[in-house]
Amino acid sequence: MLDGHSADKMKSKMSKNALTRMVFTGVLIIVLAVCITIFFAQEQETKRLKRKHEELQTIIAELEAEKYELEQLYNIAGTPEYVERIARDSLGMVAPEDLIIQEQN
To answer: Is the C-alpha dihedral spanning 27, 29, 34, 39 positive or negative?
Structure first.
């Protein structure tokens, strides 16, 4: 059998082991909570960046279309086709052979 001194030593050792396990468990819970928080923050950032990427892809497509249009205008600049296009688009002019249809209100 154990004497009183040995029993106290054993209780003290068990209490230190229990305290160590509790501290370890607490630290583990905190680490897991931080990891989960970081994971969800990264997921939100990934979604935001994907939306931004889609927006920028749309802008790029619009700018590419505008670039193509400007290149076409540059290629015909100074030609009769260019003059006609400016007259039609900017000045609202029509050629004598054009058929004009007006809406009635």
So the answer is: positive
Residue 14, judged by CB atoms within 10 A of its CB (0-12, 13-18, 19+), counts as: exposed
41 is in which domain, residue-wise? Answer: 4-89
| Tens of pLDDT, residues 44-101 | 999 999 999 999 999 999 999 999 999 988 888 888 888 888 888 888 888 888 877 8
Position 66 in a domain: yes
Cα 94 from Cα 87, distance rounded (Å): 8
The count of domains in the chain is: 1
Residue 53 lies in a domain: yes
Structure token pair of residue 38: 């970081």
CA 86 to chain centre: 40
Determine the Cα–Cα distance for residues 38 and 36; give it in Å rounded to an integer. Answer: 5
